[in-house]
Design a protein that fits this description.
The chain is of the alpha+beta class and 209 residues long. The chain has two domains: 85 residues, PAS domain (Beta-Lactamase), CATH 3.30.450.20; 106 residues, Beta-Lactamase (2-Layer Sandwich). It has six helices and twelve strands. The protein is elongated and about 60 Å long.
Length: 209
């Protein structure tokens, strides 16, 4: 087996979750029966996990700190599931795509999961935290996202300029596609008012209205 540049690891598991083959090879004979993606696929369904942190993948790519998303495909003989193919997405590839989007001079795009926890952000130390956590301390932002508002403004210190400004963030709430119901992620784009103007402009730029 050979993993492409899009994946940290690809595993061939038997129906008990034992790894029969992997790329890279270090996972052979390890058990993955507790993996949420495996649990769904072994029941016969294509399963995409939410973003999570894997200690095993962190050891492979320390810079990633183990953040990944698993895609699991059932392998059937007739109607019976005899194994599962699991691919772990290389998270930094998704980060690179998102961070190419520029918002003003110092703004950025970020992503939260269904629990309102940060999963893509220029400050990786915020991964796994919600806006309510002490390190972010924006409970009003957490409430606004749960209410699915199109945009939100708040006072915030710009990390690059070290000055207080009014941050404007617009949000999109993807609903999935076809038979895939989506993962409940929230995509936000934020910038300082002094850089990008009034909320309607931000909403037009990102088609969030």
């Amino acid at each position: 087996m050979k993993a492409s540049g899009a994946y940290d690891a690809i595993l061939l598991l038997d129906k008990t979750g034992a790894c029969l083959a992997s790329a890279p090879e270090g996972f052979v004979n390890e058990g993955f029966s507790n993996d949420e993606a495996f649990k769904g696929a072994v029941k016969g369904k294509l399963t995409i996990s939410d973003v999570h942190r894997s200690e095993a993948l962190a050891s492979l790519d320390p810079k990633s700190k183990g953040w990944t998303l698993a895609i699991a495909v059932p392998l059937k003989v007739g109607k019976d599931v005899e194994g599962v193919l699991v691919s772990y997405l290389k998270w930094k590839r998704l980060e690179e795509l998102i961070f190419r989007i520029k918002v003003g001079r110092t703004g950025y795009v970020f992503v939260l999961n269904s629990q309102n926890q940060v999963i893509v952000h220029p400050a990786q130390q915020l991964y796994g935290l919600s806006p309510r956590d002490r390190q972010i301390n924006l409970p009003a932002l957490d409430d606004a996202i749960r209410q699915k508002v199109p945009y939100f403004t708040y006072q915030f210190k710009n990390r690059m300029t070290e000055k207080m400004d009014t941050k404007i963030s617009g949000f999109a709430y993807p609903q999935g596609y076809g038979n895939f119901p989506g993962l409940g992620w929230v995509v936000g784009a934020g910038a300082d008012r002094s850089e990008i103007g009034e909320p309607p402009l931000l909403m037009r730029l990102f088609r969030l209205k």
